[in-house]
Amino acid sequence: QWPFHFLAIFWSRARFEDSVPRIVENPSDLIVSKGEPATLNCKAEGRPTPTIEWYKDGERVETDKDDPRSHRMLLPSGSLFFLRIVHGRRSKPDEGVYTCVARNYIGEAISRNASLEVASKALCY
Fold first, then answer.
1. 5: helix, coil or strand?
2. Ig-like domain: from which residue to which, for each copy (predicted)?
3. Most buried in the list 38, 66, 94, 100, measured by CB within 10 Å?
4. 73 Cβ contact partners less than 8 Å away, ≥ 6 residues apart
5. For residue 117, what pLDDT is reported?
6. Of all residues in the chain, what percent are helix, strand and coil, respectively (each to 5)?
């Protein structure tokens, strides 16, 4: 009876312990048209629930959480939604390599890289 009792206590305590975040859905490469909406998916698990931040080419991405006028929105799931892809001759603010980072007080998890490319007119039929 002793080993069973010990295991039951250990199991019940372990269930409620906090855990390091882990990425359960990584973003995928995207090719999108200028002006169109797009979503880079990212989902993470952990205890406590991790916060998600996005990085493009190593720099933190500004979203509607930072600036309500931003065309980039951080969805409750952790995904990054673009209201419209911005792309010009001189400025290509949305094109690049993205990663999402999930953090809680125990640690962090980094997703795989995903590239967002803007389709050239030559590719659009």
1. helix
2. 21-117
3. 100
4. 63, 64, 80, 81, 82, 83
5. 97
6. 15, 40, 50
CB 39 within 8 A of CB 82: yes
Predicted structure pTM score = 0.81
| Rounded Cα–Cα distance for residues 113 and 124 (Å) | 25
The pLDDT value recorded for residue 120 is: 78
Question: Do the Cβ atoms of 82 and 100 come closer than 8 Å?
Answer: no
Can you say how many angstroms the Cα of residue 116 is from the centroid of all Cα atoms in its chain? 14
d(CA 96, CA 23): 21
- The Cα 103–Cα 100 span in angstroms is 10
Domain 18-123: give its CATH superfamily. Answer: Immunoglobulins (2.60.40.10)
Q: Which residues, at least 6 apart from 68, have a Cβ–Cβ distance to it below 8 Å? A: none
Phi, psi of 103, rounded to the nearest 5 degrees: -135, 145
Q: What are phi and psi of 8, to 5 degrees?
A: -65, -45
| Locus of tokens 């509607």 | 64
